[in-house]
């Protein structure tokens, strides 16, 4: 009853307010200026060379010019390692709203709950990525039946070679083993060995090939020879270099890679890095990823091209894979997802790929001139795109650098000793890896207390 009475009084009051006794209506109220929509400030974190960072800044500027309700600020780091140190600090203010990561960071991101799963966010925005992205690229950033981050770059390890030191036409004319045509679709280990020997010219001070004595450096050869790097692809507890197939692949590979007559000596490596020797035109071949291309293009007089990694038994390589993640603590997850969709669009991806550093995970861009860049070195940039199908994606590890450090000394012994005991050294490497991969397991080499 009180509510009805109050409503009646309001009606009466409004009716009386509309009259002043003279019959003239009250003047209409003046319209008030509407407030501009609230802008959400978001941050976008990337790393890389200044030219690549400039391309990201161009994307941000273009987006900010057209976007309503959000403004993006670009945060940059010189290297991936510098960026990750900020993420590992535990300070949430160091986590951008959208950020670029390496595939190897995913385990850490999930452990610390730093990223927002993307499937629902992409579905809401009508993003159909099934045709534009390779299945392996999507799986590489998937866990717990969710897409944790969006694949952005996928760069397989390939073999860069100096075209002045290695001329396949001349090799064929001399009846030396060489690729049968100029399509650069692949080569076997015999042809690779012949190329290393062909590039080695003692009078000119040139050497044939250098591969770093690291797990990443040797992994393509192990996989190509039918071996495995880890004892389990999902939950590794140890390396698997002592297994028969892995050991056999290494034995075949080391016949060339520890040949002091065609590889860089310790004295040469003390003077300059393998990359520096390649830039000087004194090294025939060096493995690398797409990001190396712009750096080599800037070297006066250097002529280079790329080949897939050599095949022992099957085509195989590893790769650098990057993705874009939305922070679980983003100022606005929805608006960060909007910006993500823009960054991974074909036009935006092509803009970054045109700088030469990015091997895009977006398939239409990967076969476009924005990436292939006809008329520039390498002439066979399609090798990057075609080799993706041969990539072996390793298990997610919380700290790959720690694993490399744990086995580095023994790996170096295996590649630099004149007559290495490969059986003993691979067994030792696998044992050393357990301290990182399965630290709860007591070391077999540890002596019982009291002995």
Task: Report on the architecture of this protein.
- With 451 residues, the chain is an alpha/beta fold.
- The chain folds into 2 domains: 40-155 and 319-390, D-Maltodextrin-Binding Protein, domain 2 (3-Layer(aba) Sandwich); 158-317 and 396-437, 3-Layer(aba) Sandwich (D-Maltodextrin-Binding Protein, domain 2), CATH 3.40.190.10.
- It is built from 20 helices and 11 strands.
- The protein has helices spanning 2-17, 50-66, 80-88, 106-112, 119-124, 135-140, 168-173, 189-199, 215-224, 244-257, 266-271, 274-279, 292-297, 333-343, 346-353, 363-366, 369-372, 382-387, 400-416, 422-437, and strands spanning 40-47, 70-77, 98-102, 142-143, 146-147, 150-156, 158-162, 207-209, 283-288, 304-307, 319-326.
- The strands form 3 sheets. The chain has a 5-stranded mixed β-sheet with strand order 2-1-3-11-6.
- Strand 1 (40-47), helix 2 and strand 2 form a beta-alpha-beta unit.
- Helix 9 crosses helix 10 and helix 19 runs antiparallel to helix 20 (422-437).
């Amino acid at each position: 009853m009180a509510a009805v009475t109050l409503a009646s009084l309001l009606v009466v009051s409004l009716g009386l307010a509309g009259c002043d006794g003279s019959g003239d209506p009250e003047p209409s109220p003046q319209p008030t200026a509407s407030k501009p929509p609230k802008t959400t400030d978001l941050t976008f974190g990337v790393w890389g060379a200044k030219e690549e960072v400039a391309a990201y800044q161009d994307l941000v500027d273009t987006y900010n010019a057209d976007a309503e309700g959000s403004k993006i600020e670009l945060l940059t780091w010189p290297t991936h390692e510098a960026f990750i140190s900020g993420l590992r600090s535990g300070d949430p203010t160091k986590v951008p709203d959208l950020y670029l990561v390496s595939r190897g960071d995913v385990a850490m991101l999930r452990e610390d709950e730093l990223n927002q799963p993307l499937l629902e966010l992409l579905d809401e925005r009508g993003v159909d990525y099934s045709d534009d992205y390779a299945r392996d690229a999507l799986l590489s950033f998937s866990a717990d039946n969710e897409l944790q981050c969006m694949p952005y770059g996928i760069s397989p390890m390939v073999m860069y070679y100096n075209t002045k030191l290695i001329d396949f036409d001349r090799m064929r004319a001399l009846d030396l083993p060489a690729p049968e045509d100029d399509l650069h679709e692949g080569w076997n280990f015999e042809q690779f060995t012949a190329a290393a020997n062909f590039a080695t010219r003692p009078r000119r001070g040139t050497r044939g090939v250098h591969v770093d004595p690291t797990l990443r450096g040797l992994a393509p050869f192990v996989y190509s020879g039918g071996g495995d790097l880890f004892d389990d692809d999902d939950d590794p507890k140890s390396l698997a270099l002592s297994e028969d197939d892995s050991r056999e692949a290494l034995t075949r590979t080391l016949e060339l890679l520890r040949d002091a007559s065609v590889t860089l000596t310790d004295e040469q490596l003390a003077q300059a890095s393998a990359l520096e020797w390649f830039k000087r035109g004194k090294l025939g071949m060096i493995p690398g990823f797409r990001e190396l291309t712009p750096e080599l293009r800037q070297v006066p007089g250097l002529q280079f091209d790329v080949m897939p990694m050599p095949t022992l038994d099957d085509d195989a390589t590893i790769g650098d894979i990057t993705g874009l993640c939305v922070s679980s603590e983003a100022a606005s997850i929805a608006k960060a997802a909007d910006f993500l969709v823009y960054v991974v669009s074909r036009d935006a991806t092509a803009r970054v790929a045109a700088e030469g550093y990015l091997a895009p995970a977006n398939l239409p861009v990967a076969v476009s001139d924005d990436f292939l860049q006809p008329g520039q070195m390498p002439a066979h940039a399609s090798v990057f795109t075609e080799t993706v199908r041969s990539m072996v994606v390793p298990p997610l590890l919380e700290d790959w650098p720690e694993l490399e450090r744990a086995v580095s000394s023994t790996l170096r012994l295996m590649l630099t000793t004149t007559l290495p005991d490969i059986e003993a050294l691979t067994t030792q490497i696998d044992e050393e890896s357990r301290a990182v991969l399965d630290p709860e397991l007591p070391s077999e080499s540890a002596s019982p207390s009291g002995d």
